[in-house]
TrEMBL record:
<protein>
    <recommendedName>
        <fullName>BZIP domain-containing protein</fullName>
    </recommendedName>
</protein>
<keyword id="KW-0175">Coiled coil</keyword>
<feature type="coiled-coil region">
    <location>
        <begin position="72"/>
        <end position="106"/>
    </location>
</feature>
<dbReference type="InterPro" id="IPR004827">
    <property type="entry name" value="bZIP"/>
</dbReference>
<feature type="region of interest" description="Disordered">
    <location>
        <begin position="117"/>
        <end position="157"/>
    </location>
</feature>
<keyword id="KW-0539">Nucleus</keyword>
<dbReference type="Pfam" id="PF07716">
    <property type="entry name" value="bZIP_2"/>
</dbReference>
<keyword id="KW-0805">Transcription regulation</keyword>
<feature type="domain" description="BZIP">
    <location>
        <begin position="51"/>
        <end position="105"/>
    </location>
</feature>
<keyword id="KW-0238">DNA-binding</keyword>
<feature type="region of interest" description="Disordered">
    <location>
        <begin position="1"/>
        <end position="61"/>
    </location>
</feature>
<dbReference type="InterPro" id="IPR046347">
    <property type="entry name" value="bZIP_sf"/>
</dbReference>
<dbReference type="GO" id="GO:0000977">
    <property type="term" value="F:RNA polymerase II transcription regulatory region sequence-specific DNA binding"/>
</dbReference>
<dbReference type="GO" id="GO:0001228">
    <property type="term" value="F:DNA-binding transcription activator activity, RNA polymerase II-specific"/>
</dbReference>
<keyword id="KW-0804">Transcription</keyword>
<dbReference type="GO" id="GO:0005634">
    <property type="term" value="C:nucleus"/>
</dbReference>
<feature type="compositionally biased region" description="Basic and acidic residues">
    <location>
        <begin position="1"/>
        <end position="11"/>
    </location>
</feature>
Length: 157
């Protein structure tokens, strides 16, 4: 019966109680005799301690250099990737600006035609521009058809 209630208790208290920290690994420094223990390290022990410290420091330096090199390579890779992405986005922005200019030109020409400022050069029957647009026929804009050609170029790409 006690075993049956134990899982419920552990579930309800699991969020409130923190587990004890894992035991810390013993380092070689802990194994060295301390002056408080009443023994002074001998000269041979002191040399061994210094050599061990130097060896561990050299190994730590090597690990640091390796990590630094990996971090640098990763950073360079990120820079390269982001530079490529920047070029893509700049090209896309340029293309969108160009397309926006074409669309503005088309809107302005259509607006002027509806106001009667610019005659519809493609309409020889005397009908209105609106009737031509409703029938699906498009007149080339003024300026040698630059608006139409650019629009078709955009659609093909």
């Amino acid at each position: 019966m006690f075993g049956h209630h134990e899982p419920e208790a552990s579930h309800s208290h699991a969020q409130q109680v923190t587990p004890p920290p894992p035991p810390q690994p013993q380092s070689p420094v802990d194994n060295t005799p301390s002056p408080e223990a009443g023994q002074e390290p001998s000269e041979g022990d002191t040399v061994a301690i210094v050599e061990d410290k130097r060896r561990r420091n050299t190994a730590a330096s090597a690990r640091f250099r390796i990590k630094k090199k990996q971090w640098t390579l990763n950073l360079e890779r990120t820079i390269s990737d982001l530079s490529g992405r920047v070029q893509e986005l700049e090209g896309e922005a340029s293309e969108l600006r160009r397309e926006n200019g074409w669309l503005k030109e088309i809107v302005m020409l259509k607006s002027k035609r509806l106001q009667g400022v610019v005659p519809d050069l493609g309409d020889t029957s005397g009908g209105s521009t609106l009737q031509n647009e409703e029938s699906g026929q498009q007149s080339p804009p003024l300026g040698g058809g630059s608006g139409e050609g650019k629009g078709k170029e955009k659609q093909s790409s």
